[in-house]
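Hi R.,

Here's the chain you asked about this morning:
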Amino acid sequence: DGLFGKYKDSNVVMVQTEALMNFVIGQSVNGQEITPNLNKLMKESLYFSNFYHQTGQGRTSDADFVTHSSLLPLPTGSVFTRYADRDFDTLPEILKDQGYSANVFHSYDASFWNRTTMYREMKYDHFYSKKDFVMNDVLGWSLSDKALFDQSLDYMKNIKQPFYSFLITLSSHHPYHLPEAERKLDIGGLEGSMLGDYLQSVHYVDAAFGELVEQMKEQGLWDDTILLIYGDHDNSIKEKEDYEKFLGRELSPLDMEQIMNQVPLLIHLPDGGSAGVYPEPSGMMNVAPSILHLLGIAADPYWIGGHLFGDE
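And the predicted structure, written out as tokens:
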């Protein structure tokens, strides 16, 4: 595939996006794009259109675990809480062996999902949690995604390159209650439904991504950073009628399974190379091996997933 090691020593910024599902990408409601910034970014990125989250009851923590370890989660409970004391080979640890700085940014209580313990095990240099952020723009559970991106990128100015930065968003968290001022879409017939509220939340997060890209460019990161964006799991909204109303067609049980299990994955390479839609089925276990492939680092033999760029 010619990509092995092509982006050696690039910075890597990966954003795990709360409840971002694939069915909204490229969609409009009443003539307004729901994710205009991601749609634009998609044109110069690799977009995996049949990418599946592989999470169980651990939800957000499972997404984090699978993407970083290329192993599958537990059928019950969360790996982060049940097996935090095990020695896993994870992406941050492997990158640190290659001279990378590795940090995680999430403006919530450090103890939630047992993150403090797990991130120590994963060998991150630092976990920037709620206490590290200025609560200058609170939205829902914590700091807004716009402020999270802004302050995290500010921290990155002083982090030694090459670095790996993992960001976890929160603004689009269930039950999707955005303040009125941030509800920018006219969602018509979906007004008052949770799916309508969800679309508003996704639209807000998309605007935050637009600002993230601009700030990366301003800080001179854009041309030497691999940016990955993916959704962590479904939105917990199972009302088929609302999806049918939104998509304007009848949905089979298989359609619903796909809608509930597909999340988007975008990979933007430093030179905008290899852009296009990649329809091959893939999942979270393929993420860490793909990052290592781009950086020219041999993947861990104990991982389940392969990289996303071959023909297999």
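The CA atoms of residues 83 and 118 lie 9 Å apart.

Let me know if you need anything else.
M.
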